[in-house]
Each structure stands twice: as structure tokens, then as C-alpha cells.
Automatic annotation (TrEMBL), chain B:
The lineage of its organism: Bacteria, Pseudomonadati, Pseudomonadota, Alphaproteobacteria, Rhodobacterales. GO terms for cellular component: plasma membrane. The chain crosses the membrane at residues 12-36, 86-111, 118-142, 154-177, 198-223, 257-278. It comes from Planktotalea frisia. This is Trehalose transport system permease protein SugB. Belongs to the binding-protein-dependent transport system permease family.
Length: 340, 293
């Protein structure tokens, strides 16, 4: 295809991505380096019958004018990144000096909003991703050995948790594990504690969010593995059988190597998706116990006072996190391409 | 077909049956339970005394005089004007799907036919864009949208969702077009078509399976979105998912949590039908990227 034709064909897409993905990225970097203007304060001398008094008032007009002239705010350098809401350099230093043990240091780190969000995001990502792969594989093997007649229905049912809107799916589970819901009461019966409430306990909330994560994503791994199992070479399997391989050995040496590239693919997609965990935290009203980076941005942007610089700084840090996660994949793709 | 060698030992069969049974319950039961519960009153679905009240519906009987009640649906759709959100969702989905497919087919086709290195880099950049959490983009939009008075309107959200959708659409359609033999459009060009005519007359008629599959996922992205639509739309232009989000804040305190339950069931129903009708396409779409590596 000629360069010129290629250019015209991809132009609309490229333009859309340039304007609404690339430029916003530039914009958050710039925003994160600025903070909004302080209000312009003027001193006025008001003279009355009892003499003159100095008072300070906010000059609304001048403030408006300044904001209109420089909508970005004033340049602040890296201060937003270093403040308490983000990397909290001073606080981390103090905690380091003050705490006697690693444990105490960790505890004081978890009081800082950014590290709290980071801790949950990373735990969620690296717990949910392997579990999704394991459960997806189990379900795929099970469905694959079910009778052909019911496979269609099984796949239909399995797709439900994945295709459902994340906010809605999380709500459905949340209502069930509510202290007054069916699973919640069951848990109270099992544990023998009538006041057991997931909403009130941080560890239970973390577990519940991860259970939701696995429930939501396992079908994706299942579908990919299931498709992979359809293309396992039966001749190789039979050859292995003739050579005396047991069932376990056949799975270990024929099926698993065949599915390995798929695992890389699933892991990559899951790492990307789990890193942006957000909706379940809203649905479970979990923010007191668990926050994620995406939630922190949402929290800054929503509400009455939109803290744009703070949100922008968290966004930049999140993007850096994503890039670190993606680097191995990008390097591999680059090498593969170089070999061709 | 099943030869003796393929037969499984009994413990394995039992294990597989158990896995399947547990999974089917885990996957389907929450939906059935919520559907059932949405026709009860709050006192039954969230019963302080006994969870089984949701089955027997004692309070529903007392409060409404019947075993089932549509009060939750009436409250959500009529009192809280959920129909408005449903209409907004329909508009957003319609425009996002048609426009992003139009852009995506053109781009995806070109990417699949270009032998040059820049096409590869284009795809890699799209992959990186795909990985960015959408909410990070939103914090980039807000100041600009406020500045130009674009905030709050449906078209703004539509344009943003189209753009966010592009990386995925391009990847998906790129791999579908790769599977359409290149000889097809090249022979049309030998016969005197230019590139666009070849695309229009030769490729377009055979591309529909791929386009439908990609369209399904574009639809899901637009329909399921929470972050973008919550932060970019004002109250009256809200789509369904942010509307449910706002139910959580306001109605839960008023004791109208059943509004939210009914709204959740209403949102799930179209997805249910979609999976029922397009199951095959969804499965092929999910595996398209993977199986080819």
C-alpha cells in the first residue's frame, strides 16, 4: 500500500487518538506541574466615624482576571508530586526515622493516601491475575470434557460475569454479601458471629474485592483456554499415549506447552485491566478500607472542588506504573519484530 | 468417538462435575437471585431477621398485598426518570458503535495491507493507548472541556468514547482483515480500481463477520462505561450506569435501594439478550487476538 493511501485511510483514527488520547496525556503532565492561583487579596482601608481600619478582602475581579489570563494556574514544579497526597517525601522520611521495625514503617506508609492506593492496586493485580489464570484453566478443562450437548449452555452461563457492566456486577455481589443479604447471613451462621459484616472489616473487604475480580475475569481466561484446547493436536496426544504417557504426563507435556502462549496473552490483558481496578470500589463503598489509583483520581475529579492538579499528578504516576508493567511485553515485541 | 483410551477414571469425572456444578452456580445464581429479589420489597430482599424472607416474601405480602411487586421498577423508571438515562445510553451506544466502526474499518484495513515498519509502530502505540486507564485521560479532558464549554453534553462523551475505543477496534479489525486474502483486493486493482474502490467493492462485502464482532465489543465499552460518562456528563444527560451510581449516593439513604436493584436488573437484561444472540461472535472475538498469538 502506498504511503499516501495509507495516510488517508488511517487519518480519521489517528486524529481521534491524537486529540483524545495523546493530547490529554500531554495535558496531565502540564497540569500536574501547575497549581491553581491563590485568591488575590487586597488591603482596604475603611474609614468610618470611629477612625480608619485596615481590612483584607478577596478581590473577586482580579482573581477572575488572573484565572482567565492564565487558566493553567501558577507553575509549581514537582511540589504536587511531593506533597502528602502523592509521593509524600517528607512524611515517608519521618516515618522511616520514627519507626523501629519494618512493620511499623509499613503501617505508617498505609496512612498516606497514595501508598494506600498503591498497596491495594498492586495486591489486587498480582493476586487476581494468577487466580484468574488458574480458575479459567480449570473451568476450560471441565467444560471441554463435558458432553457436547450442554457445552453451549455452559459457555453462555460462563460469559455472564464477564460481559456484565463491572459496576453492576459488583453491586449484585455486594448486595448478596451484605449483612442482610443471603451470602452475608450464611457467613454469619458459619462463623457464629451475628455481627460479622464485610463492610466493617478491612481484610474481608480486600478479600471480597478480589473475589469479585476473579469472578469477573475468570470467564475471559476460560474462553481463551477453551478455544486453545480445541486446537490441541490429537495426533500428538495419541502418539504420547502410545509411548505410555499417563494422563497427567500428557497434560504436562502436550497440552500445557500448547497453551503457554495463550497464558502470556491472558496475563498481559489481565495485568492491564486489573491495574485499573475502580468500579468495584465504588459499588462496595469500600473506600474506607481499600482505594486504588483510579479511585484516587476519580475522587479528586468528582465532588464540589475539583482538584485537577492533584488528579493529574496521580494520573501521571499511574501511567508510569502502566508503562513499567508493559515494558517486558514491549521489549519482547520489539525483539520479535527485529528478528523478522 | 470416545475410544476406551479416552475414558476418564471415576474420581476425575467426579472432580470435573463438581467444578462445573460450582462454577455454574457461581456464575448464574447471583443474577437469578437479584432478578427474583427485584420484585420484592426492601424488607424482604434485605431482611434483618431471616434471609429466607426473600423467598417467602412475607413483607411483600403485607406491604403490597401480592407475592411480587413492581414498585422498584415504577420508582426507578418513572419517579427517578431512569427512562431518560436509558434513552441517553441508547444514543451514546448507537453513535459510538457506528462511528468507531467506520473509522476502525478504514484504519484497520490500511494497517493490515501496509508492509512498512510504521504500520507496526502504529499498532504498538495503539496497544500502549489501550493499556492506559480511561480515568487518567478524563483528568486531561476536564480543564479543556470547561474552557470551551463542552462539558456535560452527550456529543462530548460520544466523541471521547469513540477515541478511547479506537485502539481496540484497530487491533481487532486489523487481525480480521489480515485473514482476508490480499489477492482479492489486489486483483481488483489490477482490473483498474483504485485502493478505495477495491476496498469499497471487494472488501466491504466480505468484512461483516469481523465488523459485527468488533461492533459488539464497542457496544459493550460504551454501554458499560462508568468513569467517562460520570465525570463528563451533567445530571440530565446521564447514561444508565452513572445514573445507577448516583442512586447509590442518594436513594440508599432514603430507603429506596430497591430502585437501584430494579435499575440493575434493567441494565442487565439487554446484555443477557445480546449474549444469547451473539454468543458465537463474542467467543470468536475474545479468542481472535489470542489464538493467532
Amino acid at each position: 500500500m502506498k504511503h499516501k493511501t495509507f495516510f488517508w485511510f488511517v487519518l480519521p483514527s489517528a486524529l481521534a487518538m491524537l486529540l483524545f488520547i495523546f493530547l490529554p496525556m500531554v495535558s496531565i503532565v502540564i497540569q500536574s506541574l501547575h497549581v491553581s492561583h491563590e485568591q488575590v487579596i487586597v488591603e482596604v482601608e475603611s474609614c468610618g466615624p470611629f477612625g480608619c481600619r485596615q481590612s483584607t478582602t478577596i478581590d473577586q475581579e482580579a482573581t477572575e482576571a488572573l484565572r482567565a489570563a492564565k487558566p493553567l494556574g501558577q507553575f509549581a514544579g514537582l511540589t504536587t508530586y511531593l506533597d502528602r497526597g502523592h509521593l509524600a517525601v517528607n512524611e515517608v522520611g519521618q516515618a522511616w526515622d520514627a519507626s523501629q521495625s519494618w512493620r511499623a514503617f509499613g503501617a505508617s506508609m498505609l496512612n498516606l493516601p497514595f501508598y494506600k492506593a498503591m498497596a491495594f492496586t498492586l495486591t489486587f493485580t498480582f493476586v487476581v491475575t494468577p487466580l484468574v489464570i488458574i480458575f479459567g484453566f480449570l473451568i476450560a478443562v471441565a467444560v471441554n470434557s463435558a458432553t457436547k450437548v450442554i457445552r453451549g449452555q455452559l459457555i453462555f452461563v460462563s460469559l455472564l460475569p464477564m460481559m456484565i457492566t463491572p459496576l453492576v456486577g459488583a453491586l449484585i455481589l455486594f448486595w448478596m454479601v451484605d449483612a442482610r443479604g443471603i451470602v452475608g447471613s450464611l457467613l454469619q451462621d458459619i462463623s457464629g458471629d451475628p455481627n460479622l459484616s464485610i463492610k466493617a472489616s478491612t481484610p474481608l473487604m480486600w478479600i471480597m474485592l478480589m473475589v469479585y475480580g476473579v469472578w469477573h475475569s475468570a470467564p475471559f481466561a476460560f474462553i481463551v483456554y477453551y478455544a486453545g484446547l480445541q486446537t490441541v493436536n490429537t495426533e500428538t496426544l495419541e502418539a504420547a499415549m502410545i509411548d505410555g504417557a499417563t494422563r497427567a504426563q500428557r497434560i504436562r507435556y502436550v497440552v500445557v506447552p500448547h497453551l503457554l502462549p495463550l497464558t502470556t496473552f491472558i496475563a498481559l490483558m489481565q495485568l492491564m485491566d486489573n491495574f485499573r481496578v475502580f468500579e468495584p470500589i465504588i459499588s462496595f463503598s469500600a473506600s474506607a478500607h481499600a482505594t486504588s489509583l483510579s479511585w484516587a483520581i476519580f475522587n479528586d475529579l468528582g465532588g464540589e472542588t475539583r482538584q485537577l492538579s492533584s488528579a493529574a499528578a496521580t494520573s501521571v504516576l499511574t501511567v508510569i506504573g502502566i508503562i513499567i508493567l508493559l515494558t517486558p511485553v514491549l521489549i519482547r515485541t520489539w525483539r520479535d519484530f527485529g528478528r523478522k | 468417538m470416545a475410544s476406551k483410551a479416552h475414558q476418564k477414571p471415576v474420581p476425575l469425572t467426579i472432580f470435573i462435575t463438581v467444578v462445573l456444578g460450582v462454577w455454574v452456580v457461581l456464575a448464574a445464581f447471583p443474577f437469578l437471585w437479584t432478578l427474583w429479589g427485584s420484585f420484592k420489597v426492601e424488607g424482604d430482599f434485605f431482611s434483618k431477621a431471616n434471609w429466607a424472607a426473600a423467598l417467602t416474601g412475607e413483607l411483600t405480602q403485607v406491604e403490597t398485598g401480592g407475592q411480587f411487586t413492581g414498585n422498584g421498577y415504577y420508582g426507578a423508571w418513572v419517579e427517578e426518570e431512569f427512562w431518560r438515562a436509558a434513552w441517553n445510553s441508547a444514543l451514546v451506544c448507537l453513535f459510538v458503535v457506528t462511528i468507531s466502526l467506520t473509522l476502525g474499518t478504514l484504519g484497520g484495513y490500511a494497517l493490515s495491507r501496509s508492509p512498512y515498519k510504521y504500520a507496526f509502530w502504529f499498532l504498538i502505540i495503539a496497544l500502549v493507548f489501550r493499556a492506559l486507564p480511561q480515568i487518567t485521560l478524563v483528568s486531561g479532558y476536564l480543564p479543556v472541556f470547561f474552557e470551551f464549554n463542552m462539558w456535560g453534553h452527550l456529543p462530548t462523551a460520544i466523541v471521547v468514547l469513540i477515541a478511547i475505543n479506537q485502539p481496540f477496534t484497530l487491533w481487532m479489525l486489523h487481525s480480521f482483515f489480515k485473514n482476508i486474502p490480499q489477492d482479492l483486493d489486489e486483483s481488483a486493482m489490477v482490473d483498474g480500481c483504485n485502493r478505495f474502490q477495491a476496498f469499497r467493492h471487494v472488501i466491504v462485502p466480505v468484512m461483516w463477520p469481523g465488523v459485527i464482532t468488533t461492533g459488539l465489543f464497542s457496544f459493550l465499552l460504551a454501554y458499560n462505561d462508568f468513569a467517562v460518562t460520570t465525570l463528563l456528563l451533567n445530571q440530565e444527560n446521564q447514561t444508565m450506569i452513572p445514573k445507577i451510581g448516583s442512586f447509590l449516593g442518594t436513594t440508599q439513604t432514603k430507603g429506596n435501594v430497591m430502585f437501584a436493584v430494579s435499575a440493575v436488573v434493567s441494565v442487565t437484561a439487554p446484555l443477557f439478550v445480546m449474549i444469547l444472540v451473539f454468543q458465537r461472535q463474542i467467543v470468536s472475538g475474545l479468542t481472535a487476538g489470542a489464538v493467532k498469538g
